[in-house]
Every structure is written in C-alpha cells, then in structure tokens.
Design brief:
The complex is a heterodimer of chains A (114) and B (110). Chain A has 114 residues and is mainly β. Chain A contains no helices and 11 strands. In chain A, the strands form 2 sheets. In chain A, strands 2, 4, 5, 6, 9, 10 and 11 form a 7-stranded mixed β-sheet that branches. In chain A, strands 1-3-8-7 form a 4-stranded antiparallel β-sheet, with no helix packed on it. Classes of the chains: A mainly beta (114), B mainly beta (110). The A-B interface holds A 4, 6, 31, 33, 35, 40-45, 48, 50, 56, 58, 90, 92, 96-100, 102-108, 110 and B 4, 8, 30-31, 40-45, 48, 50, 88, 92, 94-103.
Chain lengths: 114, 110
C-alpha cells in the first residue's frame, strides 16, 4: 500500500537527550515536510524539503535538524536545544509544490519529555 | 500576514448540518483547504477551493468562499457520529507552505 509511515507512534525522551523521529514514504513524492502540533494551535512548519539533498527551515526550526539523503526518507532530530519538545509531530509529503497539490500526512509521533 | 483563525469548538446534533467558519489574512491566497483529523491520527484532505471560486460542493460537503471578506466556511450536511473530529482550515502561502488554523473540534451528539 502506498503511504507515509511515521515511527514510533509514541516516544519518551529524557531532558538533554537528542531523539530522531522517522518518516518514510513510498508515494514517489519529491516534497516532504515536518509539522509540530500543540493543543489549541494549528500546525506549525518545522522544516521542508523540495528535493533530495535539499531542505529549508520553516517557521520554528530552532532546536531541530533534518536530513534528506534519500527521496523516501526525511528524519527529524529533536535536539536538546529545543526548549519545549513535548508535542505531536506530523510528517507529510506531496508531489511537488503549488496548485492544488495535496499533502499526505503520516499518523504522527507523540513525543513526551520526561 | 499568514494568520488563519477558526473557532475552537462546535457541538451539533446528529442529522443536523454543521458549519465551520474560518478567516484568513493573506489576500494573495490561491488555494484554501479543509483537513480532517481523527483522534491520534494524521490529517486527511477533505476538500479545497481555488480562490476564483465562490462555492464548491462535494457530496455532503459544501465550501463557501467570500474572498472580499477573506472568509471560508465548510458545511457538512446530515452530520453523522463519524464526522466527530478536528477540522483544520489551511491557506496556501507559497508553493511549499500551508498556514493552518488552530482547528475546530466538532462533537456530534445523539
């Protein structure tokens, strides 16, 4: 089945530790995105990648890093520099940009700092 | 600006129509979207409308766009329990960025 897979579904991290969230898609999409969702707030864009080996910062990139070495994969690292990392993280992909391009979302990873 | 605003909660009786409202600030918006999120899941695209349209209908869903007032609404006819979810309005800011509202939690009561 074609789709976008995030793992793990739940993740617990101790303060001061880096943690990496996985996102894989088999839709052959060029563009991939990471969003953060907090209760009562809309989705905020962390990073996006238009093509392999290229990525741009979104609105809230501080404390996060990404890589795009393969078309199918766009992992997000939440570093210890991120002051408030507890949130629901959503990965998405799309064919490209512009127009009515639909973004397909993964099921999300809930990160909790303990 | 890129702000998108929507009311946070809506309660509706099963069988009635639901209307979810959204306002946006970006006058250069080309496409506006409605996404649905069920508990603990990702977002699913419900429908979208191009900015030169006033209305779009898709089965039980009707989208109305008032570009002058920068107001978008989603009407769900004959609301069912399976329609209980969070609904997000989103505005395409540029080729690669969507600006999302905070989401409206719709609760369908029997």
């Amino acid at each position: 089945d074609g789709g976008i897979t995030q793992s793990p579904k739940y993740l617990f991290r101790k303060e001061g530790q880096n943690v990496t969230l996985s996102c894989e898609q088999n839709l052959n999409h060029d563009a991939m995105y990471w969003y953060r969702q907090d209760p009562g707030q809309g989705l905020r864009l962390i990073y996006y990648s238009q093509i392999v080996n290229d990525f741009q910062k979104g609105d809230i990139a501080e404390g996060y890093s990404v890589s795009r070495e393969k078309k199918e994969s766009f992992p997000l690292t939440v570093t210890s520099a991120q002051k408030n990392p507890t949130a629901f993280y959503l990965c998405a992909s799309s064919m490209g940009g512009g127009g009515a391009t639909e973004a397909f979302f993964g099921q999300g990873t809930r990160l909790t700092v303990v | 600006g890129e702000d998108v605003e929507q009311s946070l909660f809506l309660s509706v009786r099963e069988g009635d129509s639901s209307v979810i409202n959204c306002t946006y600030t970006d006058s250069s918006s080309t496409y506006l979207y409605w996404y649905k999120q069920e508990p603990g899941a990702g977002l699913q695209l419900l429908t979208y409308i191009f900015s030169n349209m006033d209305m779009k209908q898709d089965q039980r869903l009707t989208v109305l766009l008032n570009k002058k007032d920068k107001h978008l609404s989603l009407r769900i006819a004959d609301t069912q329990t399976g329609d209980s979810a969070i609904y997000f309005c989103a505005d395409r800011v540029n080729d690669y960025k969507l600006s999302f509202g905070a989401g409206t939690t719709v609760t369908v009561r029997a």
